[in-house]
Design a protein that fits this description.
This protein is of the alpha/beta class. Helix content is 28%, strand content 25%.
């Protein structure tokens, strides 16, 4: 006999970074597999060490890392985890980034600026990642930065289902907080049955990050529930200023739906003192107790991520999760 024939077996292994291990555990509960135990710590000088306690040889490895505050630390830990899996002979490595780091730096606004979103993709590829799975990229073009498959998931259905259920029967207008979010807002209006669309006309000084000058609202908002949609809430300046303008335009109520709750200071204080009645987000990033608010509703992204991971493992179609063709 001139060959050895082996049964083709596949094993899914889940690995959790330390950025938000609770999310990885929740994903594992949906999948029916626990995250693989590991040793991870820093040396005295800040260098990160990672070692997995079980063999990863031949596995289909999924590394879940929420790149929260202290971004550079968690990016580096992710790269080290991927390198450890590659050197441990994992068959395929998929990096699950619920929030893609540096996604706002996706192009050059002026000369001598980096395209850091591309750099992150290059680092992941060099470390050994074969595939990326992420949620609501800041711009869709980031998918093209990675030289390999990118599964781009959308949290809109999770958020929209909640909004429809809670605010059923009330006239609603979807509001884009700036012109760059109009395309996203259009998808929301389709999802909510064709309700009106409005947007906030604003200006921003590119040399001063997180500083916004909002001007006026364009669209029908008077007497209506206004739903501001955005991919992330960082310092909260954009949506809080937008809420003020909407109330000045006689909106009946203002709520916000956003996938990623970064909530960098002073976002919590701004939201607390704003005229926004409710902020609906997902748990792509951890929210410590000091950032919790009575008006903040957090929906779980874990079932969606778990279903996508299962489709990737089974060589199925991630597109079908959003009503696409297989």
């Amino acid at each position: 006999m001139g060959s050895i024939v082996a049964e083709n077996r596949k094993s899914l292994m889940l690995f959790s970074g330390r950025g938000f291990p609770e999310l990885a555990t929740e994903i594992g509960e949906v999948l029916g597999v626990a995250p693989t135990p590991s040793d991870a710590y820093e040396f005295a000088n800040g260098e990160i060490f990672v070692r997995f306690k079980e063999s990863v040889r031949g596995s289909d490895a999924f590394v879940v890392q929420s790149v929260t505050h202290g971004v550079n630390k968690w990016v580096m830990e992710t790269l080290i985890m991927v390198d450890a899996l590659k050197r441990g002979s994992a068959k395929r490595i998929t990096v699950v980034l619920p929030f893609y780091p540096y996604s706002r730096q996706d192009k050059k606004h002026r000369g001598r600026e980096p395209i850091s979103a591309r750099l992150v993709a290059d680092l992941l590829r060099t470390a050994g990642a074969n595939r990326i799975l992420t949620v609501d990229l800041h711009t869709a073009q980031i998918q093209g930065f990675f030289d390999g498959p990118v599964d781009h998931l959308f949290a809109m259905d999770i958020l929209a289902e909640y909004v429809q259920r809670k605010y059923a029967g009330r006239p609603m207008t979807v509001v884009a907080p700036d012109s760059g979010r109009v395309r996203v807002a259009e998808r929301w209006t389709d999802r909510l049955g064709g309700c009106p669309l409005a947007f906030i006309h604003k200006t921003r000084d590119p040399s001063k990050p997180n500083q916004v000058v909002a001007n006026r609202v364009v669209g029908d908002v008077e007497g209506r529930v206004c739903l501001i949609v955005d991919d992330m809430i960082d310092t909260g300046g954009t949506i809080c200023k937008a809420a003020e303008i909407l109330h000045e335009a006689n909106a009946a109520d203002v709520l916000v739906a956003s996938t990623h709750a970064l909530l960098s200071d002073p976002a919590t204080e701004r939201l607390k003192n704003s005229r926004i009645s409710e902020v609906v987000v997902t748990n792509t990033l951890p929210l410590p107790p000091e950032k919790q608010l009575d008006k903040l509703t957090v929906l779980s992204i874990a079932p969606l991520l778990a279903r996508a991971i299962r489709e990737v493992f089974d060589d199925g179609s991630v597109t079908t999760l959003f009503g696409g063709l297989s």
